[in-house]
Amino acid sequence: MKPQAKSKSRRKPDPIPEKFISFEALADFWDSHDLTDYEDKLEEVKYKIAKRPTHQFILSLSDKLTRELRIIVRREGVSMQTLVNLWVQERLQQNLKRSVRQVAKQ
């Protein structure tokens, strides 16, 4: 018996969600999908990686907030610094979008 040639008719990949409800949902999506199915969606980006942070901040948090933050850090599998940095970035982006919308309404 001859081996059958692979069919080139691939099914259309699932759409990439516009937003993920959590880091876990994002990880679950890419754990179950092949990036090569989305090559047409990829864009080249240029970026700089800072050798070390240019600014450092010291935060004083209550014991309760620290415990809750540590739970999230363990669940997300990232460092506390990374998690807080991501949250600050997200919040800044939200505020920037809100500011742009307000200026557009004027």
Describe what this molecule looks like in 3D.
There is one protein chain. This protein is mainly alpha-helical and 106 residues long. The protein has a domain at 59-106. It has helices spanning 23-31, 63-76, 80-105. The protein starts with 22 loop residues before the first helix and ends with a helix.
What are the key terms here?
0% strand; 106 residues; mainly alpha; 3 helices
Give the topology.
Layout lengths: L22 H9 L31 H14 L3 H26 L1
- Largest sheet: number of strands, sense, barrel closure: none
- In DSSP terms, counting alpha (H) and pi (I) runs of 4 or more, how many helices? 3
Mean pLDDT: 84
Strand content: under 5%
Order of helices and strands: HHH
Shape: extended
Number of strands: 0
Distance between the termini: 73 Å
Overall radius of gyration: 21 Å
Which consecutive residue ranges, at least 5 long each, have pLDDT under 50?
A: none
Class of secondary structure makeup:
mainly alpha
**Helical amount:** 40-55%
Q: Quick gist of this model?
A:
46% of the residues lie in helices and 0% in strands.
